[in-house]
Amino acid sequence: MKLTPRSINLFLFMKLPSAWWSGVRVIRMSDEQCLVSVKHRWVNQNPFGSMYFAVQAMAAELSTGALVMSEIQKSERKISMLVAQNSSEFTKKAKGRVTFSCMEGSLVQKKIKEAIATGEGQKFWLTSAGINQEGVEVATFRFEWTIKVK
After folding, report:
1. Which residues in the chain show pLDDT less than 70?
2. pLDDT digit string, tens, across residues 102-142
3. Is 82 helix (H, G, I), strand (E, B) or coil?
4. How far apart are CA 104 and CA 127, in angstroms?
5. With respect to CATH, is domain 5-149 assigned 3.10.129.10?
6. What angle do CA 126, 130, 131 make, to 5 degrees?
7. Half-sphere exposure of 137 (CA within 13 A, CB side)
8. Which sequence spans correspond to the domains of the chain?
């Protein structure tokens, strides 16, 4: 099955229900970028009147991980993927709808090709920026992905 926003959202429902119930949804995806949206609601709030950081992290990770999953699928090879490290910076309270975007698909493509060509594991960092409805960045997440051909 081709990875599309709809198929990934179904995957969330079946395999990552905490992300689904928190409102995390892929809204757009291409070879180069993935956009994931989540709206601040009662179920994903923190005690300070904004979105809980872990919900933001789920959305941000998905925006990077969906690009990795898509390129692995296109390669038609068995490749494992895992987050090795992550970091985050919060610059404003996350309220309303926040869209996390990763626009580094070309880096993912390069690293998948390197892993296949060399047979060696690859590590690379992907960044996801969270932007609120007013166009203001509320958080930035970085994930170090590791991939290895099986």
Report:
1. 1
2. 999 999 999 999 999 999 999 999 999 999 999 999 999 99
3. strand
4. 8
5. yes
6. 140
7. 11
8. 5-149
